[in-house]
Design goal:
2 helices; 19% strand; alpha+beta; 106 residues
Length: 106
């Protein structure tokens, strides 16, 4: 059996075949309007308690979308807000900050 060794052939890339990344069309936003500005925001208090009533976590004046339930507020505040003492820019007090942190991490 005879082996044939072939050298790789470099393909010439024409300008129309260069990589440019993915393109997405807008569906829920308008150009020139920051997406988070389209949301109505409210300030709420969040308190997480043990079954015996003892306070586990409390945050006054958390900023969340106005149409969120109190349960949704409590979950995002207790599970997703960056807490004081965690390296970074300090604790978070707004869902806007959480969205910004996550979107810029991905």
């Amino acid at each position: 059996m005879e082996e044939t060794i072939r050298k790789p052939v470099k393909a010439e890339k024409s300008p129309k075949h260069q990589r440019r990344g993915l393109a997405f069309r807008r569906h829920f936003t308008s150009e020139g309007t920051p997406p988070l500005e389209a949301v109505r925001w409210a300030r709420r208090k969040s308190v997480i308690r043990e079954p015996n009533g003892a306070v586990v976590f409390e945050l006054d004046n958390a900023e969340v979308p106005e149409d969120w339930s109190q349960l949704a507020t409590d979950i995002v505040v207790s599970k997703y807000f960056r807490k004081a003492g965690v390296p970074g820019t300090g604790h978070e007090v707004s869902v806007r900050q959480v969205i910004h942190r996550i979107a810029h991490t991905i």
